[in-house]
Amino acid sequence: MEPTPEQSPHHAYPDHWEADVVLRDGGTARIRPITTDDAERLVSFYEQVSDESKYYRFFAPYPRLSDRDVHRFTHHDYVDRVGLAVTIGGEFIGTVRYDRIDDTGRPASAPADEAEVAFLVQDAHQGRGVASALLEHIAAVARERGIRRFAAEVLPANNKMIKVFRDGGYTQRRSFEDGSVHLTLDLEPTEKSLAVQRGREQRAEARSVQRLLAPGSVAVIGAGRNHGGVGRTVLRNLLAAGFTGRAYAVNRAFDEGLATLDGVPAHRSLGEIDEQVDLAVIAVPAHRVPEAVADCGEHGVQGLVVLSAGYAERGADGRELQRELVRQARSYGMRIIGPNAFGIINTAESVRLNASLAPESPARGRIGLFTQSGAIGIALLSGLHRRGAGLSSFISAGNRADVSGNDFLQYSFEDPDTDVALLYLESLGNPRKFTRLARRTAAVKPVVVVKGARHSGSTPPGHAVPVSRIPDATVSALMRQAGVIRVDTVTEMVDAGLLLAGQPLPAGPRVAILGNSESLGLLTYDACLAEGLRPRPPIDLTTAASPQDFRDALAEALADGTCDAVIVTAIPWVGENGEAETGDGQVLAEALTKAVAGGSAKPVAVVHVEIGGLAEALAAASSTAAPRPRTVTSAARTRAATTATTTQTTTTGTPAAQATTTGTGTGTLAAPEATTAPEAAPRPGRIPAYPAAERAVRALAEAVKYAQWRRQAAVPGKVPEFLDDTIDEAGAAALIEAQLSTAPDPRGRPLTHDEARELLGRYGVDVRPTLPAPDPEAAVDAAARLGYPVALKTTAPHLRHRADLGGVRLDLADEEALRRACGDLTDLLGKPAELLPVVQAMAPRGVDTVVRASIDAAAGAVLSFGLAGAPSELLGDTAHRLVPATDRDAAELIRSIRAAPVLFGWRGSAPVDTAALEELLLRLSRLVDDHPEVVSVALEPVVVAPQGLTVLGASVRLAPPPARNDLGPRRLPNY
């Protein structure tokens, strides 16, 4: 909305305050500033508020608003007087207003930093979290306008409003004065307020997806009378799956006399249906979708699945149609899956929903599946069905205009029927949020991701998202830090998902291999070594082994305390007549299932060659459809939320807590906060079967790494307290502000060597000084000041850090050597004015490393480490972690590069001071975390000696911090 002439031109309408939010019950609403055009809406809203709510707002009977009231509540300057409204369908359902006041409570302007705040929510919408959402947004607005505290007067009987303030998580003070409760809230966000906000976000977004997946009634809009159309196909699939709710066929082209279609009521519009429909599946041409959405919104539909194509995948015009579709749906409080979606499935016995184009609903299972591609969704459903696996839920989001992978993670975290979440993603709309949610979810159940469009350098059609500049290898490292199992193909995703959903987590990397083929066992052994596992020598049962021999050998391996997992290899066995018995695998499947029937805590996988029907027989013998009950307590969720900000991936060198696993599915790591309910007659988990050793081993290796991450996530890392005593955060902030104030370029500016040294010094990072050497005499003077031996090196951009080009001379012990080096440089590379030579005191010998930190628009702040030199650059041997980094992150960062042995005494060399290196990483992490204006830092080289380290070069770039879409009040993204 645009401001009217009555509003101050100095404070234009702040459209960036507009936001779509998900309320507590999963519905959506829009929050926006109130304008002078809202007078009629305000009056209508007030008329629908009960007398009791009016009394609580005004402390007296107040049946109607006067003209003066309406004027005051709709005219704001958006600085000292601000009003926000929550709207659904364009009508107000709640309002909040603040007025800036001075110490005496009278109206004031800046620099007064306190404001009086008051809320009013329509009674029909109380209990939906409207006031809580308004508090988050009005607090953010107030902070933007320099207000630091809210004051509120609340009647003691107004318990709902008191609870809103109390539960907000802000620091508050309370007193009882003149018959009312006086509350003062400090608006500076706290750990508690942020946790409260994210907890509400999680529950609301999970509920919004749950409403889509578990509707009580479904209308298929566009179901035609002729067979074969999209709408008719969805309707038939819905009925074939045995949907437990009510189904309706809707098409405005139906004859008035048509009463049913495929046995369900047929209507020309939703208005003819005598109940509120929960979910609408829209399968009409794109130009008719707005009409269908309006019909849904006006009749209380809660959510939409839009199968119709012709949107952002068609270009700019289609993208604008898509944005308008989202705006229209959200204005009615509805969420959208799609457009261009394949559909959704929920196999829960109480729902049995197949609102998709999949002709056959998958079996009930423990795997949740989200995909942004309909074609990939079809392939995954087919592959899972072929291997006898079941699903708990399936969402094909198409263009992902609204419901995204982040929403699916929110739902999966809560869903008791999902043990593993599989996601095929082509873009990440909010990478920071994805990492946070994935980390929390992975703390209680595995998250397996395939990322498409990794190397195209472009966004897939229909996906408007921030473009990341960091390499895909970095994205993969950051995902693994969050506990995400990142695989390269959908086949690998299915392989890993089957193992994780059907088997307990391994306690370590030790693998027993047994089977009736020595060659297949050796292939499996080699594959284990290649994946970093520790296989025992294969046990050859010989080709004469019977199913009973397999059972006995497997039972023995499961009882052996020297192995953590078992891989069974099988080829057709030889019968009594000397001929191979291919069979259908039924007998072998029964034998293997009986061997694990005792409830083994070790995962088992089968590699088979030409044993027909073995995978199906294993699936039938031990289905994922009957897992052990598992519970995630509120305390465990709290720990998972804490883990979301502190955990990381581990490779080597870090002690790990011991784990125990119980039952099927993800396994439960021993912790007092999370327990698994006992089961009277536990059934074994599904044993996954693979047609190749490499596939089984790769899936097991992913499970081993994930289990290791889970064990360490239970004891999160921390930032050492000693850093606080040697960091001058305020001094660094002053330096940054001064430097940026002199840079008119919005892109910021690089700091000089001396400026960078001063800034880094505020965080305890000492950079060895350099002195310019424009001629031999200046070089000699500089060396005299610094002390011999010295180094002479060029600093020209095209020669920086290029020792291979001869631009560096080391260990110059005296004046004669220094003068000779000056001459050599100019003879070889050019004039001093081109080379920009400097003199620097020599550092103790050690290993040259590189430490960097940068802010990526999509991924956030990233800390990187590697060895200096061309080989590391060519091989991409660099490790990455998200900022802020913990002590465990720093330790793992230096150990996760392939060249890490060089730091620990490789080939008889002296180990270097890795503790000093870890401290440097932590200091740099704190710098970029405390000051987002520091958009890039490179320390190169950092020479790490057996005792201490020396930073020889540093470059720093400052710029206005990029916008953060993961901070501030809750809001739905606009793709």
Task: Describe the SSE topology.
Blueprint: E1 19-22, E2 28-33, H1 39-47, H2 51-58, H3 67-74, E3 81-88, E4 91-101, E5 114-121, H4 130-144, E6 149-154, H5 159-167, E7 172-177, E8 180-186, H6 191-213, E9 217-221, H7 230-240, E10 246-250, E11 260-261, E12 264-267, E13 279-282, H8 289-298, E14 303-306, H9 316-331, E15 335-337, E16 343-346, E17 353-356, E18 364-371, H10 374-386, E19 391-396, H11 405-414, E20 420-425, H12 431-442, E21 447-451, H13 472-481, E22 485-487, H14 490-502, E23 510-515, H15 518-530, E24 534-535, E25 539-540, H16 547-559, E26 565-570, E27 573-574, E28 580-581, H17 586-595, E29 604-608, H18 614-621, H19 634-643, E30 689-690, H20 693-713, H21 729-741, E31 749-750, H22 753-761, E32 770-772, H23 776-786, E33 790-794, E34 808-812, H24 815-829, H25 832-835, E35 837-841, E36 847-856, E37 860-867, H26 870-875, E38 878-882, H27 887-895, H28 914-930, E39 934-944, E40 949-951, E41 954-958
Parallel strand pairs: 5-6, 9-10, 9-13, 10-12, 13-14, 14-15, 18-19, 18-20, 20-21, 21-22, 23-24, 23-25, 23-26, 26-29, 29-30
Antiparallel strand pairs: 1-2, 2-3, 3-4, 4-5, 6-8, 7-8, 11-12, 16-17, 16-19, 27-28, 31-41, 32-35, 33-34, 33-35, 36-37, 36-39, 37-38, 39-40, 39-41
Helix pairs in contact: 6-11, 8-9, 11-12, 12-19, 14-20, 15-20, 16-17, 17-18, 23-24, 27-28
